[in-house]
């Protein structure tokens, strides 16, 4: 090798080292700015500031690189800095697996979310003592450990059946107790969190309330396990941020539920976003449930969707079951009767642990 080239290459190596030191120092200062921006709720990207820096660098450019090349090189540095700031933001979220690498388990009576697949089942709405007792007896006999049923119903029309309220909570609790099941039910109003916590083992925050931040904080403060459904039009990120509201209150008992999102498709009630459920498993440490009933809105798709969800590794599948769906007071087209539930169970049994379901 030409000795002059060797000598010059050593110079280049020294400059590379200095550049790296300077870039690292720049990155450390930028992350300090990033932390302050995050604390103040400000974004990191500031196009006016970038414009100002690029104009300054072009004005100070001693050559030989043309201004355009200098700008291009610095834009890369800006991009890498922004990515660093965003990465640092992500790491501090309580929902993130980077914050807590191990899976969070949520134990509710006999059921442990995060320790082998479970089923959550029960009617859409709690309608009567007989309906709840019959459903709980049937489901318990099939090994289902978590009973659902709404006492406060989020209906599209204000004139539709709104649920039995406290009376419904009592019926749900009694049926679950009688058959050794855990009871999950929806709470829609911050003023009801206390009474619902008295009767339910798990508080459900429904899709329509996923961004009711006051409610999220209140269920967080209750310390009760929370079943958080993904909003009808919520992105995966917005869903995680909703979980963060609950977690930020010191309550880590959060279960995420993918229940289908609104798309242009009309042959299903919603579109099951299995990618969302898998992302939730990968990026968070929380248990993940797939609600196939509200996702599909039709019975013929429940078993295949549940199989797909279980194969993808979710912690539970959620279905609606009613002794006589034809006369149910809500969601009659999508609730399974007992025979349909048995067929459903037969179709998914191999993906559930044998000990957890029996017939
Ligand atoms: C429900 O679980 O009955 C319900 C209303 O679900 P979602 O909030 O997902 O629509
Ligand atoms: Mn329903």
Describe the structure.
Helices cover 47% and strands 11% of the residues. The strands form 2 sheets. Strands 3-4-5-6-7-8-9-10 form an 8-stranded parallel barrel, surrounded by 7 helices. Strands 1-2 form a two-stranded antiparallel ribbon. The protein is built from 12 helices and 10 strands. Helix 4 packs parallel to helix 5 and helix 7 packs across helix 8. The longest helix is centred in the N-terminal third of the chain and has 37 residues. By secondary structure, it is of the alpha/beta class. Strand 5, helix 6 and strand 6 form a beta-alpha-beta unit.
Explain the layout of strands and helices.
Layout: H1 3-39, H2 47-60, H3 67-91, E1 106-108, E2 111-113, E3 118-122, H4 129-141, E4 146-148, H5 166-178, E5 182-186, H6 193-199, E6 202-205, H7 213-222, E7 226-229, H8 236-247, E8 254-258, H9 274-283, E9 288-291, H10 292-296, H11 302-311, E10 316-320, H12 338-348
The structure holds phosphoenolpyruvate and manganese (II) ion.
Manganese (II) ion binds at residues 124, 320, 330-331.
- Content-based structural category: alpha/beta
Number of helices: 12
Rounded average pLDDT: 96
From the alpha carbons, calculate the radius of gyration and give it in angstroms. Answer: 27 Å
How far the N terminus sits from the C terminus, by CA atoms, comes to 80 Å
Fraction of residues in helix: 40-55%
What's the number of extended β-strand segments? 10
Q: Using the alpha-carbon principal axes, give the shape.
A: elongated
Strand content: 5-15%
Order of helices and strands: HHHEEEHEHEHEHEHEHEHHEH
Question: Order of strands in the sheet with the most strands?
Answer: 3-4-5-6-7-8-9-10
**Unreliable segments (pLDDT under 50, ≥5 consecutive)?**
none
Bound ligands: phosphoenolpyruvate, manganese (II) ion
Largest sheet: 8 strands, parallel, barrel
């Amino acid at each position: 090798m030409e000795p002059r080239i060797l000598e010059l290459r050593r110079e280049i190596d020294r400059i590379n080292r200095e550049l790296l030191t300077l870039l690292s120092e720049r990155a450390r200062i930028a992350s300090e700015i990033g932390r302050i921006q995050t604390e103040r709720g400000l974004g990191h990207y500031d196009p006016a500031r970038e414009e100002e820096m690029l104009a300054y660098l072009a004005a100070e450019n001693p050559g030989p690189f043309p201004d355009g090349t200098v700008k291009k090189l610095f834009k890369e540095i800006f991009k890498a800095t922004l990515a660093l700031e965003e990465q640092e933001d992500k790491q501090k979220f309580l929902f993130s697996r980077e914050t807590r690498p191990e899976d969070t388990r949520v134990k509710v009576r006999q059921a442990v979310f995060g320790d082998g697949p479970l089923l959550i089942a029960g009617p859409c709405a709690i309608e009567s003592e007989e309906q709840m007792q019959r459903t709980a007896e049937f489901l318990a006999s099939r090994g289902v450990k978590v009973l659902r049923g709404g006492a406060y119903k989020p209906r599209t029309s204000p004139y539709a059946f709104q649920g039995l309220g406290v009376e419904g909570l009592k019926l749900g609790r009694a049926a679950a107790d009688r058959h050794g099941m855990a009871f999950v039910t929806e709470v829609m109003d911050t003023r009801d969190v206390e009474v619902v916590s008295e009767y339910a083992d798990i508080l459900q925050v429904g899709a329509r309330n996923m961004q009711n931040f006051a409610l999220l904080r209140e269920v967080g403060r209750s310390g009760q396990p929370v079943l958080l459904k993904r909003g009808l039009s919520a992105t995966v990120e917005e869903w995680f941020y909703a979980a963060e509201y609950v977690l930020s209150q010191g309550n880590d008992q959060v279960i995420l539920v993918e229940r289908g999102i609104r798309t242009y498709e009309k042959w299903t009630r919603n579109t099951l976003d299995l990618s969302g459920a898998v992302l939730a498993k990968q990026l968070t440490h929380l248990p993940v449930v797939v609600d196939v009933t509200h996702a599909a809105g039709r019975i013929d798709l429940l078993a295949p969707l549940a199989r797909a969800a279980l194969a993808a590794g979710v912690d539970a599948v959620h279905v609606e079951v009613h002794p006589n769906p034809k006369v149910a007071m809500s969601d009659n087209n999508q609730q399974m009767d007992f025979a349909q539930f048995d067929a459903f169970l037969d179709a998914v049994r191999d993906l559930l642990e044998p000990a957890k379901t029996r017939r």
